[in-house]
What does this fold into?
Amino acid sequence: MRTGTTAASGHGVGGRRRWRALSVCLVAAFMTLLDVSIVNVALPSIRDGLHASDAGLQWILSGYALTFGLILVPAGRFGDARSRRAVFMAGLALFTASSALAGIAPGIGWLIGARLVQGVAGGILNPQVAGFIQQLFQGADRGRAFGLLGGVIGIATAVGPLLGGALIALAGPDEGWRWVFYVNVPVGLAALVLAWRLLPEPIYGERQGLDPPGVLLLGAGVLCVLLPFVQEQQWHGALKWLLVLAGGVLIAAFVLWERRTGTPMVDLGLFRLRSYALGAAIALLYFAGFTAVFFIFTLYLQNGLHYSALEAGLAITPFAVGSGVAATIGGRVVSRYGRPLVAAGLGVVVVGLVAAWIAVELRPGGGVGWATALPLLVAGIGSGMVISPNQTITLSEVPYTEGGSAAGVLQTGQRVGTATGIAAVGSVFFATVAGTRGDWAAAFRHGLVVILGFVLAALGAAVVDLVTGRDDGDGRAE
It folds into this structure.
């Protein structure tokens, strides 16, 4: 498969410095992705400390995801068109400052506002990370770099509850939730200094237009699509789903505009690349499944079985370990095995989730954390074989000058998938809890069935690609 980059990868950045620059990017990515999951276990403490309502707690979670998803594509485009380093540092500074503001929040309104700003900052940062990898690395090194990023994604998603639980245990239930946010401040300040020293200088060879109408159309469309999902538990009735229809109309208008304008925000020709179109579909479906596992498992353990925040985090750790190790290895071998590696990983995830379902069926009580440890480890290994190899293959033919915006589109699909999956799985989960008068184990198993449906759909897409033809060449990452 072609790499779609120029030979001047890294533009003068030496080999060792490239990896040091990548480490700064990975630290920032870890911070922003950690804040998606770390807050889950802090919600009971926030409720008590700030006297928050259920709606307020929901917005602490969903507000971050919403603004994160809204800004991804425009931020990726801006970094491509101007200076990735400047955009990255602005996002990092904003994330650090908003973390401090969240930590000192005197009330729930303040905390929600800080979380909204945090989401914006995370959305600014993340496309730049993929853009830098496209710019700095080629061939097998690019696969290894995406492997490390995949490890960060898997670990940050799964280790968040563990770290949050540990901070609350150390600082106490009254003030512990504040340290969930404060912990970002020293890390962010150190990363800012290193980013200035290590990230490559901007390239001003060809400045591109920023397409304000496209930004507005896509932003409004994504907002309409995401909002009913993130508010699914708070907005009752079916009328909210009309917003999804309106979002579809706005996104269609965005596509028409992008085809007509001379300076499109997104090169729609990317979707003519089999590797990009298929990879984006797999990412959307897979993120709809695997991120919902942590949502319902944490609820099952804490609300149903009265696990502490730290105990719930420890129960999810096997997934984090498996995902982190497998993602790093997957990044190293994706150039050799290509899309079959992703399909195999999805199959392993299915096996792990089915085993978790059986474990909860056989031992639904207090020992479920131990009973699900091995199945979650297996599912984590499979997840590591999916996320980073799929991202490597998906972006393999994208020119580095489009790396940020292409990654922004890919990650927006992941956010839409996450919101859709949590809404769908959450609906089944809560309906089962209500219908069985508090059978949390049954609710978790029913939720796993929906999750398996999403993962099997992603596996089906990967298998269809393997059966119907090779992936724009030899089916490999380069």
Residues 48 and 174 are 8 Å apart (CA to CA). The chain has two domains: 15-199+261-468, 214-260. The two ends are 4 Å apart (CA to CA). Confidence is low (pLDDT under 50) at residues 1-12, 471-475.
